[in-house]
Amino acid sequence: MARLPDPQDPVFQRLNSSLGFDRRLWRQDIAGSKAHLGALRKLEVIDDAGLRTLDEGLDSVAAEIEAGTFSFDDSDEDIHMAVERRLTELVGPIGGTLHTARSRNDQVATDLALYLRERSTRARELIAALMRRQDRVTRR
Q: For the chain, which domains are there?
């Protein structure tokens, strides 16, 4: 997915890559991508067959990541590029349609918002369980 003919300098590649951090956002990235497919279908950018193909492709990418068989590439700057690259490998050129009317900044913001919502909900659950436990201990 390089835009320039020459490969990136390895130092720049390491500096520019966020994959080490954001690979944990894969579930949120897949969920956001599936929601985006719905918008693309509604706007008639893709038809029903394209929607099915892309949706099933994203399911396959998710299954690979979940199983630990997903192969990250040195050119994957972030989780979004990794997912889109693999999707395109699986379903062909239609995979590039996923990026239509979508910016990386929007993807990052959406993924982080979904991740924080999930983690804060879990933190509240754990705090409430701890408070209940402490309350039982205090009553003894």
A: 21-139 (1.10.275.10)
